Amino acid sequence: MSSDRIERGIELLEQFRKGGSQSVQKNYSEIAPDIAEYILGFIFGDLYARPGLDLKTKQTITITALAVLGNAKPQLAYHIENGLNIGLTREDIINSLIHIAGYAGFPVALNGIATAREVFDKLDGKNKN
Fold first, then answer.
1. Residue 37's closest CA among 72, 16, 46, 78?
2. DSSP conformation letters of 20-38
3. How many CB atoms lie within 10 A of CB 109?
4. What is the pTM of this model?
5. Is 3 exposed, middle or buried (0-12, 13-18, 19+ CB in 10 A)?
6. Rounded (10°) angle between helices 73-85 and 90-99
7. From 106's CA, which of 4, 9, 54, 98 has a CA 20 to 30 Å away?
């Protein structure tokens, strides 16, 4: 993978979360170094770096897509927090999750909202996990 894609990805991920790129590398470099490169190079270096949509819109799409998957709770929580870090409001996130109820169903929306509540509570110091 070209180093410019990875460098672009590192730069973008740092906008979402200070130390985010080091966390990706630490969590995956020993067990699955290729996945760390894919996350940094493809997800952030290519997809998030593409023109056409602003970062808030891309993050909203990511949050709703992860909620619809229904099996990506850790990733959904991570991206909800990233969304807050780049300026999405809690209301933006909740409204996008409510909106998907009409397309993906109420259980999907309710599970996404429950995950958002857990993230909000953690950030508010209400959850010690």
1. 46
2. HHHHHHHHHTTT-HHHHHI
3. 22
4. 0.89
5. exposed
6. 140
7. 54
